[in-house]
Design a protein that fits this description.
Largest sheet: 4 strands, antiparallel
Shape: rod-shaped
Strand order of the largest sheet: 3-4-5-6
Helix content: 40-55%
Structural class: alpha+beta
Oligomer: single chain
Strand content: 15-25%
Number of helices: 5
Radius of gyration: 46 Å
Number of strands: 6
């Protein structure tokens, strides 16, 4: 038996037309092949991947930049906290030198005010103040100024000082030693007190200082 090439119906051997769809035997249009989807170009895939990766790359750059800022801030914080005890001492001598320089404008006799022309210093040593003694020092401020003070760290700092006088002065250049009590209140360091006559022993110095002010 024949089969209709169009609809697949069974036909008699001598049939000239399909009894099902009416198509003439031998003239059925062959079925068209289904279109095949074109293969994706490998270049297009790479392009798409690159497009998807751009936001991730930008985010990564942002994270690295933020991390760099954090590192810089940490370095600044460490330097300020670890070496900050020197800053108030530096400002102390800067103020002394500025006062010596400007004294001639408001102190008489002006010649005397100009005698000490320059004061230089160098930090020689430091000793850490114990927590209990820091509390004692804070108590003195609490009593004298009616405020609550809390010091997180402190040192007794030994400083060598040199005095240079003008050529017209009768005084000779001199040297001396000063001791600074520096304390950290919050995140800042301060000069608590200074003296030029004291024992190098930190306990003796703090004991003398506390007893003399109670």
């Amino acid at each position: 038996m024949k089969v209709c090439e169009k609809c697949g119906a069974q036909l008699e051997d001598n049939a000239q037309f399909c009894v099902s769809c009416g198509t003439k035997v031998g003239e059925a249009t062959p079925k068209q092949a289904e279109p095949v989807a074109p293969k994706a170009s490998p270049f297009a895939a790479k392009k798409n991947d690159a497009g998807k990766g751009s936001p991730n790359k930008a985010a990564l750059i942002g994270i690295i930049a933020a991390a760099a800022v954090v590192v810089v801030l940490l370095i600044v914080l460490i330097v300020n906290v670890a070496g900050g005890y020197k800053k108030p001492i530096k400002k102390y001598f800067a103020a002394l030198n500025a006062a010596q320089k400007d004294a001639k404008t408001y102190v008489l006799p002006a010649e005397y005010a100009q005698e000490a022309t320059k004061i230089t210093y160098s930090i020689e040593d430091k000793e850490k103040i114990s927590k209990s003694k820091l509390e004692d020092l804070a108590d003195i401020f609490d009593d004298n100024y009616d405020k609550e003070y809390k010091f997180s760290k402190g040192y007794v700092v030994e400083v060598d000082v040199e005095y240079e006088y003008s050529k017209d002065s009768d005084k000779k250049d001199g040297k001396g030693t000063m001791y600074f009590i520096v304390v950290r209140k919050g995140m800042k360091w301060y000069v608590y007190d200074t003296t030029s006559n004291t024992s190098k022993d930190i306990d003796e110095y703090i004991k003398y200082y506390i007893e003399s002010r109670q």
